């Protein structure tokens, strides 16, 4: 049986990690521009260290990215050569509204994306557009406090209305917010939140989340009004939690950890806040301010499909001794002794993808779309820039097989798959270039040195074969 005939194979990037051209084409400054790599990065993206502009002490990789702003035709041609059916990319908000609160958009920014979308269609590639992939104009952060301010709903609505009208007929697949649950874990990067000393951070995060959820519903409403062919998805940073052992306390802890992220999609997919979430806020003394009509907007404008990123499963326990061992990326997790780990400590669990797909599909019964999955690794190119990345091929083949099992054996409805960082780009978590995901090598190091030349890795031709066979041929030959 396999994947559906119109399965959307492709790859994914984010504007702030690949475009560069931060001060070109009338673009304004965004939160994602002023996040440096290096030891201060974690504190800055968490909203605990103030970085509202560039300084001379840090390196800011988003300034250049991989210079896709100037090289997108070359890159999309390579995607076309691989046979991409779709390309997931994001809009840089500050290319369209440089400050974020203008009433008229920046024509140069609008034209840039129109040209990019036309380039995609030239190769038969359907754009899948993330409206906000962590981007928040710095002016909106300085002037309004980022997403804590309800006025952000108006600014976001204006952005969406502009995009849906301008790109009608060019784009039909949209995502409102990338990894919307990241607001709880990286609030400055995720929502432009910087916390003043003594501020109730949890209150601010959940109020900001409400503003994003209402904005997402409004965007869905407008998209369907502008073009009934539009399909709008929500987007979750996923990875099911396993209990550390069969202690009932650990089993329940894993349920609670899953719910921390699922509540966002519960709202976006089902249209209302779940009872467990409201009870939890009540216990913690957190009160979400809602305006009249918010509940109706959420209820009447739910997502058409559920998209998510998956890199690894996670492990939960309430054992304080085990909790001391917790480590990992932005999502900390107790180590799973049954799994291998990547060079960055992310645990590799292909079956976990199948489990996660089943968990999400059982919960929502809506089509799924895997929009991020991949292996961040250190690649060693030869003199020609060629990388024999068998480790990446092995990782992706096992995950695609697990995804296929979820479709064929479990009956999960899956629309498509876009591997993360289909071309090497700056890592969102660490700000590094050496943490590479792509099928295409980009000659650039962590400090911004290199030619920016593109070259195909071994995985390039492997993925081309996977797409051509609609996922039937996963062999590395």
TrEMBL record:
Any Gene Ontology biological process: carbohydrate catabolic process
Main EC class the enzyme belongs to: hydrolase
InterPro entries assigned: GH, GH_1_N_CS, Glyco_hydro_1, Glyco_hydro_1_AS
Region forming the signal peptide: none
Residue numbers annotated as active site: 372
One Gene Ontology MF term: 6-phospho-beta-glucosidase activity
EC code(s) of this entry: 3.2.1.-, 3.2.1.86
Gene3D superfamilies per UniProt: Glycosidases
One cellular component (GO) term of this entry: cytosol
Keywords associated with the record: Glycosidase, Hydrolase
Pfam families per the UniProt record, alphabetical: Glyco_hydro_1 (PF00232)
Family in the record: Belongs to the glycosyl hydrolase 1 family.
NCBIfam families tied to this protein: PRK09589.1, PRK09593.1, PRK09852.1
Protein name: 6-phospho-beta-glucosidase
Organism ancestry: Bacteria, Bacillati, Bacillota, Bacilli, Lactobacillales
